[in-house]
Amino acid sequence: MPPAASTIAPHTDAVFYFIYTVSLFFFTLIVLLMAYFVFRYRRRVEGERGPGRTTHHTALELTWTAVPLVLVVLMFYSGFRGFMNLMNPPAGALDIRVLGQKWLWSFTYPNGHVDTELHVPVDTPVRLTLESNDVIHSFFIPAFRIKRDAVPGRYNRIWFQATRPGEYLALCAEYCGTQHSDMLARVVVHEPGLYEKWLAEAADPFRTRSLAEVGQLLVAKRCGGCHSVDGSANIGPTFKGIYEHSVTLADGSTVVADDNYIRESILEPRAKIVRGYEPVMPTFKGQLKDREITAIIEYIKALSDEATKPRSDEGTEQ
Amino acid sequence: MKAVVSTFPRSHVAAAEAGAAGDNYLTHAHGIRSWLFTIDHKRIGVMYLVSILAAFLLGGIFAILVRTELLTPGPTIVSADNYNRFFTLHGAIMVFLVIIPGIPAALGNFVLPIMLGAKDLAFPRLNLFSYHLWVLGALLAVLAIVTGSVDTGWTFYVPYATTTGMGGVVPVLLGAFVLGFSSIFTGLNFIVTIHKLRPPGMTWFRLPLFLWALYATAVIQILATPVLGVTVLLLIVERVLGLGIFQPGLGGDPVLYQHFFWFYSHPAVYIMILPAMGIVSEIVSVFSRKHIFGYHFIAFSSIAIALFGFFVWGHHMFVSGQSNLVTTIFSLLTYSVSIPSAVKVFNWLATMHGGSISLRTPMLYTLAFIFIFGIGGLTGLFLGALAANVHLHDTYFVVAHFHYVMMGGTLIAMIAGIHYWWPKMTGRMYSERLGQLSFAAVFLGFNLTFFPQFIMGSHGMPRRYYNYPPQFEFLHQLSTVGSYLMTVGFVLIAVYLLHSLFAGRRAPANPWGGATLEWHCASPPPAHNFDEPPPAGDPYDFNDLEYDARIGGYVYGTRPVAADSEPT
């Protein structure tokens, strides 16, 4: 099992190793008996007979029915206790909403801040409420031994209490398409007191940054999986050099990528599809604030300015 | 003793056998139509075997592509979308076209009536129809590949399966629908045959255990498969017409789909494993030359597995959001299936105790089954425990577990069965040495492929991942190397079995000393199996069977002159 970093993990590991011990015992027994019989009763001459004549033994049969029965009931019970613990968060847990969508996780904190990283304080119960707005995803943090599906149309809950500050990985465990294996999120467990500080800073990035800088941060977190900023094609078109340039759509018409077009593409991604790309982008309606959309537009504009006025160490973009 | 024979199947194999009639099921009729439209269960069994092995080759190619892609994290040989297609096709082909029909339709078809002492199945035409349906289902799967393929995983989870852009989803679902009917008809045929066509003296408790297993399997095929048919039909209706059943956007419930799907697909696991256990019960007894231990317990454990298997489907949804009460009940019920499986394993071991154990190829594969199924079954205990399941769910631990059961269990037992009945089916003996060599390659390759996956899974490696954290690279590479080694083993099997058709020694009627009725027939059997219903006794009584070194096989009655020379 991987390093354990939550209160539930030692219990899960205890269940795992209990079953592991019992299984190892029986497996060793089976293999040793098999090997011994194969050696002891090997056929030396074709047609010879072994010494055994027993065809049944009811007491023996009942024994090897009853002993496993008792053991599996114990296994069931140990697993059940851990599960009930996992399903019932203590009162007063910190509530964080988790949204799964192709192919990123986003976390909504109690103050309304939305982020693509999960930040939590150490030694504090955290309750996650999972939802999805496209297909089924599954939120999995191996170090905490927790996993729960994010199912569209319903809310699923799970909780944990991290025991060690540090960085961990959250993965998507339910197959969801092209970038399923890249649908990862950083999980940061903060030392006491540092979580609140992080949240306050993260919630208002505009205080210390220009619009384009905030846009750059947002694009890296929210868009970078599918859209490049260096001119290369990805799942979606690149952001470089498109601002106020004309774009050819799937139906052959052209449109100028102005502020309103970019805004529409973020909120209603299926309204206009750029030629050569699949209509796979989810909507960001309700997830990005107006100011954040403006910041992204500013950043895309800045990328275009870079492209038309190249610095000496860069080639000219056509 | 090596006979020189030029062609197969037209060579008069039986004519060479002293005293045997010159006619057998292979030579009884000629031409391609005499095969494609035959109603002889033996020929249908052979056609199934050839077709299923062809599907196995196709599914195997996809498996090797998947394993090769996983040699390195990130792109190795194909794109993520193609990788997703490959593992989907690998799973769908192996499950629906290979492992579910494998043992019952190919070996069961061939062996069941002869073991029973009957001339054919109860409904020979229905049997042919179910084969033709299998072919139609296979063609639909191929159609799915050429019409844009599928990337849904073999489980077709909604809403992914109703929204993915790939065009092969509907054909592959239709294929599963058609294959379901093929499976239902086979099950129906087997049940009626076992009830109605037993000869005098063949009471229920003189049925060979393979037939008990096929009977239990047939019950599941008939009761569970219609649910799959309904489910895939609903899925097609939803995808094509937009009717809201499973998709939340249309007012449906995606978890309902999972309930429907697993209501079939979990019992289907027992459709896969029960016949495998039946083969193991036969081979363990014959190759230990000792009466099977605990016949009644093994027979009833097959029925118990078939029944309990219907009440455990919810363990596929422990983290999906079904209610905690339901989850708890399913966890408890899941453990009930482990008991009859454990009973069988102990009975097989007890059968070996005090026997005379011959390590011929069928027995080697059978011992491999016990070893591998032991691991496959015991790792199921981890997944049944709720707390452990939450961590292990949808990881490589699950992938390893079901490959240990489905591939290491069902497929290895099928290979054991093919080697066991090969002399009966073809009238030829294969090279024993190469058989043992293939066992070594397959057994080592299998464990090298799938054991590292348990370790990866317990450390949190999710399944269906194109890219993966670098810490898993070494274990993935071990796994891939193992899959190559296994491939070598399978190719070797194909080579020596095909070679045996042309140059193999002629098989005696009873090369291994089996007491079930198929060994009373010539090898290969005549077209109608038996002129008179044979007298049925205890299928595991080897007392009157003696080895005759002159024919390299076993005969009833008088002691042979020189029994100490090993056949080639």
Give an overview in words.
The complex is a heterodimer of chains A (318) and B (568). With 318 residues, chain A is an alpha+beta fold. Chain A folds into three domains: 9-42 and 55-87, Helix Hairpins; 94-203, Cupredoxins -  blue copper proteins (Immunoglobulin-like), CATH 2.60.40.420; 205-308, Cytochrome Bc1 Complex, Chain D, domain 2 (Orthogonal Bundle). Chain A is built from six helices and twelve strands. Chain A has a five-stranded mixed sheet, with no helix packed on it. Chain A has a five-stranded mixed sheet with strand order 4-10-9-6-7. In chain A, strands 11-12 form a two-stranded antiparallel ribbon. The longest helix of chain A is centred in the first third of the chain and has 32 residues, at 9-40. Chain A is elongated, with a radius of gyration of 28 Å. Residues 310-318 of chain A have low confidence and may be disordered. Chain B is mostly helical. Chain B has one domain (13-556): Up-down Bundle (Cytochrome C Oxidase, Chain A). Chain B has 16 helices and four strands. Chain B has a two-stranded antiparallel sheet. In chain B, α9 (254-288) runs antiparallel to α10 (295-308) and α15 packs antiparallel against α16. The longest helix of chain B is centred in the N-terminal third of the chain and has 37 residues, at 80-116. Mean pLDDT of chain B is 89; it is low at 1-21 and 559-568. Classes of the chains: A alpha+beta (318), B mainly alpha (568).
